């Protein structure tokens, strides 16, 4: 069994990993079928400053399907042994099913900008 996590807002992949409402975690069996769904509350803030990576690791998550994230969050997740696949968007269930069908690859694009209007306060991006 493996677990995959998706940053979620209103049933969709949140565009920014650290600002999601919660993480949807799917447990997947050996035949790539989703057998369990759970929710992990988000610490609300920059992923590189929170302990979410270690919480996901402790819960057995090995894959993160995300829209976008900065280098700090990517490094923390990777250090916890969590493979990150960026560039995902849409319904969390549809994205998870597409991943399990082998249809999703990492975009290689991360959050590499700073918001000038103050909406984003993480200096590690």
TrEMBL record:
Pfam families: Nitro_FeMo-Co
InterPro entries per UniProt: Di-Nase_FeMo-co_biosynth, DiNase_FeMo-co_biosyn_sf, MTH1175_dom
Name of the protein described by the UniProt record: Dinitrogenase iron-molybdenum cofactor biosynthesis protein
Domain Dinitrogenase iron-molybdenum cofactor biosynthesis: 11-100
PANTHER family: DINITROGENASE IRON-MOLYBDENUM COFACTOR PROTEIN-RELATED, IRON-MOLYBDENUM PROTEIN
Signal peptide: none
Coiled coil regions, renumbered to chain: none
SUPFAM superfamilies for this protein: Nitrogenase accessory factor-like (SSF53146)
